[in-house]
Amino acid sequence: MLRLIALCASLFVGGVGVANAQTNVDLGGVTVDTSAAVEVTADSLSVNQDSGRAVFDGNVLVVQGDLRLSAGQVEVIYGTDRSQIARLVASEGVTFVTADEAAEAEQADYDIAAGLLVLTGNVLLTQGPSAISANQMTINVTDGTASMEGRVRTVLQQGEN
Questions:
Q1: CA distances from 65 to 29, 33, 130 (A)
Q2: What are the b/e assignments for 55-81, b being 16+ CB within 10 Å?
Q3: Coil, helix or strand for 33?
Q4: Residue 101 DSSP code
Q5: Band of the pLDDT at 74, cuts 50, 70, 90?
């Protein structure tokens, strides 16, 4: 019992890094080939050539390598030369899936050039039997690092549970 109290105390004092180590949730396990082609499917598409934006609406699925992102709507923002996608902004319920994990959020902003995926609003990350939630999760898909902020919550499993 004393060990559990010490673990909980270190969790509150140490922040996410300790929660990461104690819950077997690997926040840094996601990597994506940012140079891979981005495939988008949806029910409809509207394009604004002047602004360099396209909006995919309804049952949107974005695929890049092993990354799968689904949402109700995804706005594609092209770079200055219009030949490359710079960002994807997803809304209306977002699900992010790789081979080993899944995350859900209200919104996501994927900066392809920077390799950053920011999930916001009721974020839930699951990896096997482990789960952790927060208000925001930022993933660097290039180097596999990640952080969670804003009322981070998890369940601590004991022993072989």
A1: 15, 6, 24
A2: bbbeebebebbebebbbbbbbbbbeee
A3: coil
A4: -
A5: very high
Q: How many CB atoms are located within 10 Å of the residue 12 CB?
A: 9
Please tell me whether residue 77 adopts helix, strand or coil conformation. strand
Digit-coded pLDDT (tens) for 78-132: 888 777 888 989 999 999 888 778 889 999 998 988 889 899 999 998 887 788 8
Structure tokens at 60: 């949107």
- Classify 97 in phi/psi space as left (phi over 0), alpha (psi -120 to 50) or beta: beta
